[in-house]
Amino acid sequence: MGAFLIKDIMLLLRDRSELLILLAMPFLLIAILGFSLRGIFSGDLEALEMDIALVSQEDEAQAVASLQSDIEEMGLPPEEKQALKQAAESASPQTMLVSLLEDESLSELVTIERMSRAEAQESLDEETVDAVITLPQGFTEGSLRNMLFGESASGELELLVADLSSPQTDVLKSILNEFVRTVNFEGSISRLSGQQSAAEVSGGIETITARQPITSFQYYTIGMAVMFVLFVGSTIAGQANLEQKQMVFDRIRLSNRPPLLYLSSKAIAAAAIVTVQLTLLFGLSALLFRTFAADSWAFWLGIAIISIVLALSVGCLAALMVAITLRLESDAVPAIFSGGIISLMAFVGGSFMPLDGMPEMLRTIGNWTPNGAALSAYFSWLLEPELGQLTGPLLRIAVVAVIFLLLALAIFPRKGGAA
Amino acid sequence: MLETQQLTKKFKDTIAVDDVSLVLRQGESVGLLGPNGAGKSTAIAMISTLMKPSSGDVKLNGKSVLKKPGEMRRVLGVVPQKIALYEELSAYENLKFFGRLYGLSGNKLEQRIDYVLELVGLADRKKELVKNYSGGMQRRVNLAAAMMHEPEVLIMDEPTVGIDPQSRNHLLETIRKLNQDEGMTVLYTSHYMEEVEKLCDRVYIMDHGKVIAEGTKEELKAILSDQETVLIDFDQNYPELFTKLSEIEGVQQATAEEHSLKLIIPKGTRLLAALFHEAERYGAQVVNVNVQTPTLEDVFLRLTGRKLRD
Question: Under an 8 A CB cutoff, do A3 and B149 touch?
Fold first, then answer.
């Protein structure tokens, strides 16, 4: 086994084009994607910081009082009137929006300043603010009527931005959409139960800020790493094909070593190469791009556990590809795998971009790819380093690895078609 | 020591090896001669236990090796036609890897590597990558790798294809030494008649998957003992004259090659008068006439009607 392992690693070290694919290319992509897409990952807060002018064209208190007076004149039981008046006061959408934007979770991102319409327009023109949110006359009353009575006269927010295509605009639109959704949701709850709960608002906002800790460098270091480890499978299968073509495989068979020793050595060599590859990619990214702030042993132990499970899974994948390659006596398998299947697996596994908006089926498939499951495990660990979080994705990787291994054992030509 | 019995290999509609029975006695050097596509490599693959025959058997010391190839593989050193080495490793690294596969380690492994490198004359260049070697040097390492486990039988499949004369001579001399000085049994396949003539005690001639003749070199040449080969050189090519001469009564085989014509005729045939008569009719000048003793090439030509390298 040692002889095989040493030989495979020596061959890889002397193959510059393979080294380029396995190490240099992912590292280059981490650098390019990490820098260029810094803005779209909410973990990169500096790139998303924004100054917002808030313009209110109405008197909120007066609008609430006016609505309460209308409620008083309704022919409702006194307790219900009281509940609705209280809801109108505490669920004022203007207050909710300001609370949301000034919330602790967004305070690093957003700076709010109240201005008049003219001041706000001037600041936007001078680019001292990035956006202006205007609450028009009738916004509070319209929104409350929509919330409490389901009337269609809902208030509309007006958003003016300096740059429509900037990532800040996207984030702000997301926040406001979430706010509108929350207001509508709150309204439904209020109508059903006759009471409101402003505390629910923060729950809605959290969905926007859930990815905050992941930076673009973290995303693409992990995304590219889990993608490029798959190339080890095709490298090892390509090597097996060359051994078969050049009859070195026959020479190995003539040495009387058990055929499965050859297959298992390929799997172990692939796993060893993946471990080294991941160590180098994560290590260099941490050193050069300061990708991982956590420097505790526990953090790196978690990363190591995921990496080892992923490496073993790629080892089993490599064994399967070697078995098919030797069975078909063709280099088609490594060529097709590296030429197309890896890109597909990387896409559904989320190496290029988050799959949040993708169809459920695609995400399910991605979660069952070794790379997708590993990506998920790494991100879970980054967000919350608890071993329990890793059980699901690591189990999926292990199941897929066992399937690969069983298929490899079934397909591998133990006698090479010979005596 | 080693024998095949009615060995046959079929690939779909083709019969690559057809009912071939060979015998290799201990210490013998046996040639398997035949043109490209004769089925030599397929026969070698089956004897080496690398390919399962469609029918027939391969025996080592009277025991079939088809189901239990282990013992056969232990005594065999196989030198394939291709360079079965890792080009990105040095000769030393290749030999170390293959030696370790055979269970060698430590001093024994190093000593064996030194011995086989010395044998093939590459001890001083052992650290160079195989891909940087000439074709001849690569073939020498190919032989060295097959020798790592001290085999008793060396099976070589066209080991000199595409190499320079110097490396070829070195390789042939090495094989001769292994056979004659160390008593190693050798099965040598080639389509180079002169190599087989130089190295082998006995020869099997194969064509279209079958053994068409066997025996010692002398026995095979005796097939042509009542015949002689006449090689006639002309000043230029005369296709019509060559056709006319090949139709002379008694000519059994005629082969034209540029300005020359080779005729196999029964001993005592009165050829010269007819030759010069026809040459004069066609205005051709005879440059040289040479009567030769038959070679294995001539035997092959006589048996198959074509040349070994066709």
Answer: no
